[in-house]
Amino acid sequence: MTHALEARLGAILRADPRRLACLEIAREACLAEGISDYLLAAGFVRNAVWDHLHNAAHSPLNDVDLIFMGLSQRENSALNTERPDDGNSQTAKHQEQRLLLALKSAALTRSRASAAEIPDNLTVDIPWEVKNQSRMHLKHGDAPYASLVEAMAAWPEQETAVGVRLNPDGELEFQSAWGLESLFALKLTPAPGRSLAVFQQRLAQKDWLRRFPRLTVDVAKG
Fold first, then answer.
1. What's the domain of life for this entry (predicted)?
2. Which of 216, 219, 222 is nearest to 153 (CA)?
3. Cβ of 104: how many Cβ atoms within 10 Å?
4. What pTM does this model have?
5. Which of 11, 98, 116, 195, by CA, is between 20 and 30 Å from 139?
6. Sign (positive or negative) of CA dihedral 218, 15, 131, 2
7. Three-class DSSP category at 73
């Protein structure tokens, strides 16, 4: 990713009060849960860029994808073996549930503290989608993912595989499996080695070409 495109993406995200609120809430919740390796990703970033490049109003946040690297099943099994009676062992799925509760709690606390903190069109009912990437390789039939970037590389579209988080200093940190160039070029490109049929199915289901008419599909580079 080039610094110029990162700066451009950062400006787009900061100009959207809804997304900035989500980034701040995610930072607070992940800090409370002791999770440092996380990102808000997929449509949260992708659609913000597409909206901006189409000079369109912000698309509805139908879901806010938060991905993180937590305990794997193997790590959880080891934890259970070492401390079978402590009652605090966490499965990968349980971590997702805990983090989701922390996100909802952070949003509610924030809303009560100051009604102006969250824009009128973004209530405390933010549609979070929380996924522990230490277990998602099972869904795709892959080897365990070593990082969030490796996990995002398994997603159907290259342009979806971009994530962001707000660090403690208030700076935006970006990670991407394939860079930002094709995202800003308004391309839709299947990820190498992934199912082209799934890519095409999502293309139809999401109705992206109608919603964002300047997009072009670049199957040759997938």
1. Bacteria
2. 222
3. 16
4. 0.87
5. 98
6. positive
7. helix
